[in-house]
Amino acid sequence: MIDFFMVLFREGVESFLIVAIAIAFIKQLKQEQLLPTVYGAIASALLFSIGLGVVLAYIGALSPLWEGALAFLAAILIFSCTIQMIRLGPKMGMMIRQQLSDITTRNESLSRVGLFAFIFFMISREGIESTTLVASIAQQNDTEALLVGCALGIVAATILSILWVRYGKQINLTLFFNASAIFMSLFFVQLLVYSIHEFSEANVLPLVDNVRIHLLTEPYGPEGEIGTWISYIIVVIPMLYVVVQMLKNSVNRSLSA
């Protein structure tokens, strides 16, 4: 459940921030007639992501080979997402506003097409990451854990995004993105081990003893004895990072006052 929560929370925050920035910017430009296009793009992207999630979950349940391939794909997405987050995370708001500014300076028809495509792409990108990650770990969890974890993640992401819209200057998004990068890096390692475990079960790893690899990686899977603790550690370490950074900032403010 914790894995589902963290995935939906992180991806949800990015999605909600994209929407919040887009809507606020369009209102600032007094282009409210473009808002239905934004809402349509959001709805289309969500439907696309949900449909993709159902397909991926079905594919992942077919065999250990497909399950391993899905976990490996999720690991690659996490790696690329983490690199992008480290490079561009703190600049996300500025970049979105610049893109929207370029789009909305065209005539209205082109603005609507460009705006729909931009919002759909941005939300779908987060949706693809979310559904791939959720589908890759869904096979080791029951339906209740999936639903509860995803629901709590979305609720938490919504709350943080609302707070950002209201009190944006007081919320340290750089800290959030750094903590997310730590979580995603650790999650990447876990998914990589899990994909190797599933590939070895399917007996497709070349030049190695697949049976031995399967036995060695068994404890480190999401349901393994060590893997269960790793799932908690993956969450605790980013939380500790946030606490330590907040304490350091508080001490620095006290010393400078």
Describe the model.
By secondary structure, the protein is mostly helical. The chain has one domain (2-248). Helix content is 84%, strand content 0%. The chain contains nine helices and no strands. The protein has helices at 2-28, 35-60, 64-88, 92-104, 108-138, 143-167, 173-201, 210-217, 225-256. The radius of gyration is 20 Å and the shape is globular. The termini are far apart.
Chain-wise SSE layout:
Layout: H1 2-28, H2 35-60, H3 64-88, H4 92-104, H5 108-138, H6 143-167, H7 173-201, H8 210-217, H9 225-256
Helix pairs in contact: 1-4, 1-5, 1-6, 2-5, 3-5, 3-7, 4-5, 7-8, 7-9
Pick out the low-confidence regions.
none
DSSP summary, beta strand count: 0
What's the structural domain tally? 1
Counted by DSSP, the helix tally is: 9
The helix content is: over 70%
Radius of gyration: 20 Å
List keywords for this structure.
about 260 residues; mainly alpha; about 85% helix; about 0% strand
Concise account of the structure shown:
This protein has 257 residues and is an all-alpha fold. It is built from nine helices and no strands.
